[in-house]
Amino acid sequence: MRVAFQGEAGAFSEEAVEAFFENAEPVGCASFEDVFAALENEDADRAAIPIENSLHGSVHANYDLLRTREARITGEHWMRIRHYLMARPGASLDEMRRVRSHPQALGQCRAFLRERMPQAEVIPAHDTAGAARKVADSEGDNRTAAIASRRAADEYGLAVLAEDIESNPENYTRFLALARPGDAPSDEAQDEDRPCKTSLVFALNENVPGALFKSLAVFALRELDLFKIESRPLIGTPGEYVFYLDVEGAAASEPVRRALGHLREITSEARVLGSYPVD
Amino acid sequence: MRVAFQGEAGAFSEEAVEAFFENAEPVGCASFEDVFAALENEDADRAAIPIENSLHGSVHANYDLLRTREARITGEHWMRIRHYLMARPGASLDEMRRVRSHPQALGQCRAFLRERMPQAEVIPAHDTAGAARKVADSEGDNRTAAIASRRAADEYGLAVLAEDIESNPENYTRFLALARPGDAPSDEAQDEDRPCKTSLVFALNENVPGALFKSLAVFALRELDLFKIESRPLIGTPGEYVFYLDVEGAAASEPVRRALGHLREITSEARVLGSYPVD
């Protein structure tokens, strides 16, 4: 099973690939667009993408791709983002004079860097895994460290000097597993014993009074709980909003099916992105 | 008027400072926490922070600070994020062999870089303004460009080689102006002729059946439109959700006042973050 992800070996997204699929062959892609293209072109059988982070919010770019391209959500996985300080084997924390990582990771580890490595120069990198690779490639340099995932340390043969160095431990990213629509399990195939959720996207026009409230009523009136709701203004078309919504239940279940029919009566566009077990 | 922002001279946030305040003295801070601290310690009189981006979602970290620290929203501003390619005066696009910027900006300009500068090495930077400063500091180097704001080009005396080089023109960031609660205009002082919105944050427990729907009903029943709604799971306390909501109307207006009273009957925590004119 070839599984597309954005990034290179050792990226957090690659870890998500393994969390979703056993014996997967991860296929690194340069961008999220390329991940969707790999799925469509059958260069990959499945894909894994980040959709929201507990500190940095929803990845709207991926919601846009889910809305406009052909892919179906088949699963979700919440992953704790843990940062590790790593260097070439034999190096010690006190020797470090430089530390490489993505600016966001450097920012999340600011307190650690200030307290434990005040002498080190921080050097930005395109991504955490690339920073680890670069440190591994610098033979003879025992004074440069990288901040990346445990997986990146393993991938590039680096020694971990410090674990969980992020200031805020409540750093989680939710990943989605994707398949081509023809390869996703049918809505009817959902295991009724496992709690499921269904992800939807729909558009509302603010000129319809109370449209949002009515669209939520279709679920509330059927006692279906919502796991997520998010509005987003459609830039370029003032007054148009897109809503992302995760509702409890499988898309094929009676109450969700009826709620979706009701939703289509009052929205200009309502698309089921997928129905899958709750993580 | 000293106005705190996160970043250094030439940052997009600094541009927001000027959009909000005339004759402001911008005060650069290393982190968002430092921005809130500068306001609390009276090192700054006002602050400007990004709160959501049309491609990258809400800045949850700033919502957390709004929820837990003492600051009041006094205004909002949607700013188009335009990327410029710049270099030392006299350099030309064809000569460029390196281009520096924040990884996110480099990613947003990927198509331009591939088509117009395929020969250039892309070098990550902590932030776009810092990349521009570094190019400006490299005397005699006419082969390195930076991607940053027009403002950064002006700040560091660089020549613009190409404008609006981002692939997706629908890249907007919404900024908020902040004041200490005692310095913000009172709710009653809102100009009744200007459309206002009120930003709220509240927590719900999923064990209260239909709690979200009931909390939205307090606005819908009073025909108050919502500009934004976003749920966010509270990591660490499963089943607890925080909601961000922007509702039409000033906090002191009769319908909003009544809706807020009603909301407090059914939520565990409901906090008004500010009431301000719609941008």
Structure description:
By secondary structure, chain A is α/β, with parallel strands linked by helices. Helix content of chain A is 29%, strand content 34%. Chain A has three domains: 2-80 and 171-179, Periplasmic binding protein-like II (D-Maltodextrin-Binding Protein, domain 2, 3-Layer(aba) Sandwich), CATH 3.40.190; 84-162, Periplasmic binding protein-like II (D-Maltodextrin-Binding Protein, domain 2, 3-Layer(aba) Sandwich); 187-277, Alpha-Beta Plaits (2-Layer Sandwich), CATH 3.30.70.260. Chain A has nine helices and 15 strands. In chain A, the strands form three sheets. In chain A, strands 1, 2, 3, 4, 5 and 11 form a six-stranded mixed beta sheet that branches. In chain A, helix 6 runs parallel beside helix 7 (150-156). The two termini of chain A are 22 Å apart. The relative contact order of chain A is 0.17. The interface between A and B is large, with 45 and 45 residues.
